[in-house]
Write a structure and sequence with these properties.
There is one protein chain. By secondary structure, the protein is of the alpha+beta class. About 40% of the residues lie in helices and about 15% in strands. The strands form eight sheets. The protein has a five-stranded parallel β-sheet, sandwiched between helices. A five-stranded antiparallel β-sheet has the order 20-19-18-21-24. Strands 5-4-9-10 form a four-stranded antiparallel β-sheet. A hairpin with a 5-residue loop joins strand 25 and strand 26. Helix 10 packs across helix 11 (about 375-405) and helix 11 packs across helix 14 (about 445-465). The radius of gyration is 33 Å and the shape is flat. The termini are far apart.
Length: about 675
C-alpha cells in the first residue's frame, strides 16, 4: 500500500459521557494509548494536536438527572470537572478538553446539520415509536426496559441487552415498560430526520475494505460485518428535551441525536483551541486524522461519522481508528451501574503518586485485539517484578554507584571489552524497534521493547559487578558505569510516552531537562564530567496488605450488589393450620455453648427450656458464630422434633435460624425477655 506523507496529525479520544467518573476500562481502552501516541509524536517534533472533551447530551445524562432529582446541566457540570481532573492527574495530555454544552459546539453542530438538511442529504421519515402516556413524552431507547427476546433477561434496554450483548430495537422487547413512569408505553407516530447510510454503502466498502486493510483486525472485521449487511437510514434527531435543538421548521421538541452531536465535538473543541486556524486540522488533505476509541464506538467512528463528513463535504476522513476491545476487572465485566470498577479519582486517593504504575500495567495488559483482564495480583506482580526489580533496580544501582565512587559525576569511558561491545550492540536498534511498533499502534509490544532496554542494563551491570571490580580495577568501573548511565538516559527517552511522571523524575536525577526522540539509541547522551542529580527510587514495592485492601473493596462491592438484587425465595405451598400447630416452638435460654470436636460446622448448646432439666441441641452454625457470642441469649427452638445423633451427641431439637441471601445464618432471638419454655403462638 502506498505510504502517505502528512504535515500534521489530529488525534481525537472518545468523548466520555459526563454522567459518571472515569475508570480503568476507559483509561486502557482509549486514553492511555492515545496519550502514548501523542507524546511519541511530540518527542519526534511532529505537528500534532490532541482533542478531548465531555459528551454532555444523550439519555444517560437525563437518566442520571431524574434519578438524583436535579437538572441535566447540574449533572454534566459536576462530572465534566471530575473527568477533566482525572485525566489531568493521570497525565493525559490533551491540548484542549472542552464540552458539548459549549456555545461554540452548539452553533457548529447546528450549522453542520442545517447544511446537510439544506443540501438534501437527509431524509424525513414518520415512524412509530414508544410513547409514555403518563409522562407525556416519547421514550428514547434507554428509557424502555423489558424482556430480551434472545436470552430472556427481564431488564434489557430498548437498544441493547447487557446480559447477552444483543443489539435490540425497542419493539422487540417482551412486555416493554417505561423507566420514567413504570407504565406500558404505546406506539405513536413521530417525524425525524435520517442519514441515508445505505446510499453510502458502496463508497464505504471501497474506502474501508479496499483502502484501509492496515486497520486492526478487530476494527476491520467489525466494519466488514456491518458492510456485508444492508445498511439502513439512521435517525439523526430524537424526541427529547435535553440536547441541541434541531434547527429546522416543524421540529419543536426534537434535538440532535447524541451520536450526530458528539463526534462534531472533536471539531468544535478544535475550533475553541484555534478559532482562526482550526480548519487546517480538519479540512487540509495534508492533515492525518486518528480516532482512539473503544470497540463499542467502532460503527459510529468508521461508518456514521465518516458518512456525515462525506455528506457535508470539505472535511478529511479518519486515516486510522485504532480501537481497543474491553478490559475486564477480576474476570468480570466492568460495570458502572454495579460499581464494578476501579475509579481513577479513588485510585489516586488510595495510591498517591502511582499514576505510572497503573499506566504501565494497563498498557502491558492492553486489550488491543481481544478483551483482556485486570487483576490486582497481576498489578502487584508487574510493579514488583518489572518496574521495581528490573527498571527501578537498574537505574538505582547505576546512579548510586556513580554517586558513591565519583560523587555523581559521569566518568570517562575507557577501552571497551567484548561484553561492553555486545551490550552497546544490543540496544542500538531500540529506537527503530519501539518506533516501528508505535507507528502501527502496537503499544503493548512497544512498551515491552522499552522494558527490554532496562533488562539489557540490569543484565550488564549484574554481569560486570562493578562493586567487586572497584577493589582491583577502578578504571574498568568507569567504563562500566559510563555505559550503564547511557542506558539510563536512553530509558528516560524510551519510557517518556508510556510513563511520563517517572521519566520526568529520571531526567531530574540525571540532570537533563529534555531529550528528543532522535536521541534514542545514542551512546553519548551523558558526557563525561556531567554532574548528575540526586538519585532516588523510581518505584516502590507493593506489599500484600495494599493489594488485599483493593480486593476487599471489590468483595464488598460484590456483596452490596447481591444485597441490592436480593429477592426472597417463592413462598412454599400452603399448609393447613392444624399442620402448623403440630410444631412446638419454644423460647430457650442458652446456658452454655461449645464447639463439637472434629466437626467444623457443629456447635453444642445447653438450653434451659423451662422444664427444670437442661436440653442439649446440636446445630450446624459454627462457621457463623463463636460459642461465646451466643451464651446468655434467648433463642427459638423446635421442642418436639424426634431426637437424632450428630457426632455421637443426641440432639433434642432444632434452633431456628434465618438464612440471608449470601448464605449466612442468623439465629432468631426475641425482642422482650420472657421465661424459658414460653410457647411461640
Amino acid at each position: 500500500m502506498e505510504e502517505k506523507n502528512f504535515k500534521r496529525t489530529t488525534v481525537t479520544a472518545a468523548l466520555p459521557y459526563a454522567n459518571g467518573g472515569v475508570h480503568i476500562g476507559h483509561l486502557a481502552g482509549v486514553y492511555v494509548p492515545a496519550d502514548i501516541y501523542v507524546r511519541y509524536l511530540r518527542l519526534k517534533k511532529q505537528d500534532v494536536i490532541f482533542i478531548g472533551g465531555s459528551d454532555e447530551h444523550g439519555v444517560p445524562i437525563t437518566i442520571r438527572a431524574k434519578k438524583e432529582g436535579i437538572t441535566p446541566q447540574d449533572v454534566v457540570d459536576r462530572y465534566h470537572s471530575m473527568i477533566k481532573k482525572s485525566f489531568e492527574d493521570f497525565g493525559i495530555s490533551f491540548d484542549v478538553y472542552s464540552r458539548t454544552t459549549s456555545e461554540t459546539h452548539s452553533k457548529l453542530a447546528s450549522d453542520f446539520f442545517k447544511k446537510l438538511y439544506d443540501d438534501g442529504k437527509l431524509i424525513e421519515k414518520e415512524t412509530e415509536q414508544y410513547y409514555d402516556e403518563e409522562a407525556h413524552q416519547f421514550l428514547a431507547d434507554r428509557y424502555i426496559t423489558g424482556e430480551c427476546p434472545h436470552c430472556h433477561n427481564p431488564k434489557a434496554y430498548g437498544d441493547q441487552c447487557e446480559k447477552c450483548g444483543s443489539d435490540l430495537d425497542p419493539t422487540e422487547l417482551i412486555n416493554p415498560q417505561s423507566t420514567i413512569s413504570g407504565s406500558q408505553p404505546v406506539l405513536k407516530k413521530t417525524k425525524n430526520w435520517y442519514l441515508p447510510l445505505n446510499e453510502y454503502q458502496q463508497w464505504l466498502k471501497k474506502w474501508i475494505l479496499d483502502g484501509h486493510k492496515e486497520w486492526r483486525p478487530n476494527v476491520y472485521g467489525q466494519c466488514k460485518s456491518w458492510l456485508d449487511m444492508d445498511l439502513q437510514p439512521r435517525a439523526m434527531t430524537r424526541d427529547l428535551d435535553w440536547g441541541i435543538p434541531v434547527p429546522v421548521e416543524d421540529a419543536e421538541g426534537k434535538v440532535l441525536y447524541v451520536w450526530f452531536d458528539a463526534p462534531i465535538g472533536y471539531i468544535s473543541n478544535t475550533k475553541e483551541l484555534f478559532p482562526d486556524t482550526w480548519e487546517k486540522w480538519w479540512k487540509d488533505p495534508e492533515t492525518r486524522l486518528i480516532h482512539f476509541i473503544g470497540k463499542d464506538n467502532i460503527v459510529f467512528h468508521c461508518v456514521v461519522f465518516p458518512v456525515m463528513l462525506k455528506a457535508h463535504g470539505g472535511y478529511i476522513l479518519p486515516e486510522n481508528v485504532p480501537a481497543n476491545e474491553f478490559l475486564n476487572l477480576e474476570n468480570d465485566k466492568i460495570s458502572t451501574s454495579r460499581n464494578w470498577a476501579v475509579w481513577l479519582h479513588e485510585y489516586l486517593e488510595e495510591m498517591p503518586g502511582k499514576q505510572d504504575v497503573l499506566r504501565y500495567v494497563l498498557t502491558a495488559n492492553a486489550p488491543e485485539t481481544k478483551d483482556n483482564n485486570f487483576t490486582w495480583k497481576d498489578f502487584q506482580e508487574r510493579n514488583n517484578n518489572e518496574l521495581v526489580a528490573v527498571y527501578g533496580n537498574f537505574v538505582n544501582r547505576a546512579l548510586q554507584l556513580t554517586k558513591k565512587y565519583w560523587n555523581g559525576v559521569v566518568p570517562e569511558c575507557g577501552e571497551l571489552t567484548e561484553v561492553d561491545k555486545n551490550t552497546l550492540n544490543e540496544f542500538k536498534d531500540v529506537k527503530k524497534n519501539v518506533e516501528d511498533l508505535l507507528n502501527v499502534f502496537k503499544f503493548r509490544d512497544a512498551q515491552k521493547e522499552a522494558m527490554n532496554l532496562a533488562r539489557i542494563g540490569n543484565r550488564y551491570i549484574t554481569e560486570c559487578e562493578p562493586w567487586k571490580v572497584w577493589k582491583t580495577d577502578p578504571r574498568r568501573v568507569e567504563t562500566i558505569l559510563y555505559i550503564s548511565l547511557q542506558i539510563v538516559a536512553n530509558l528516560a527517552i524510551a519510557f517518556e510516552p508510556f510513563l511520563p511522571f517517572s521519566s520526568a523524575r529520571l531526567r531530574k536525577m540525571i540532570n537533563i531537562n529534555e531529550f528528543n526522540w532522535q536521541d534514542l539509541g545514542s551512546t553519548n547522551l551523558l558526557a563525561a564530567g556531567h554532574q548528575l542529580g540526586e538519585p532516588e527510587l523510581l518505584f516502590e514495592k507493593l506489599e500484600d496488605e495494599v493489594i488485599n485492601r483493593q480486593l476487599q473493596k471489590l468483595e464488598d462491592t460484590k456483596k452490596a450488589n447481591e444485597a441490592a438484587a436480593y429477592k426472597a425465595d417463592p413462598i412454599k405451598d400452603t399448609v393447613d393450620f392444624s399442620d402448623f400447630e403440630k410444631l412446638d416452638i419454644r423460647v430457650g435460654h442458652i446456658k452454655n455453648c461449645e464447639k463439637v470436636k472434629k466437626a467444623n460446622k457443629l456447635l453444642k448448646f445447653t438450653i434451659d427450656d423451662g422444664t427444670g432439666t437442661d436440653r442439649t441441641i446440636v446445630s450446624g452454625i459454627a462457621k457463623f458464630y463463636e460459642p461465646e457470642e451466643l451464651i446468655g441469649k434467648d433463642v427459638l427452638f423446635i421442642a418436639n422434633l424426634a431426637p437424632r445423633k450428630l457426632m455421637g451427641i443426641e440432639s433434642q431439637g432444632m434452633i431456628l435460624s434465618a438464612e440471608n441471601f449470601d448464605g449466612n445464618l442468623s439465629v432468631t432471638t426475641i425482642l422482650r425477655n420472657v421465661k424459658p419454655g414460653s410457647k411461640v403462638c
